Amino acid sequence: MSRPVKTQTFKIGKVNIWQGKRDGWCDDPKRMDVLEMGIPDGCDFKTLWTIVHEAMHAEQIPDKYLDQERDASYYVALLIWRLDWRKQND
Q: Smallest Cα–Cα separation from 54: which of 4, 5, 12, 3?
């Protein structure tokens, strides 16, 4: 991951979004001045789920609703996927 691919404003503030081969992550605004989020590079269901999951963290959805095997982000991603969402590769 060499540079952010985008920025997005969430409830936690403006976030630099990095895309690469790692699993997803989202900075905690209590610990960081410049906020960043990492999302995996891909076009499969797991990538979509990770993007939704990290976005929900950035919207300050409490961890108790997100850090479970099949949490709210899984079901939101599943709905989007079943509606035929597919990322187009560049």
A: 12
Local structure of 36: helix, strand or coil: strand
Sheet strands side by side (includes 13-20):
6-10, 13-20, 35-40, 25-26
Instruction: Report the amino acid identity of residue 63.
Output: D
Q: Which residues of the chain have pLDDT under 70?
A: 1-4, 88-90
Rounded Cα distance between 20 and 62, Å, is 25
**Do β-strands 35-40 and 6-10 pair in parallel, antiparallel, or remain unpaired?**
unpaired
pLDDT attached to residue 64: 86
User: Is pTM beyond 0.85 here?
Assistant: no
Burial class (CB in 10 A: 0-12, 13-18, 19+), 76: middle
CA–chain centroid gap for 73, Å, is: 9
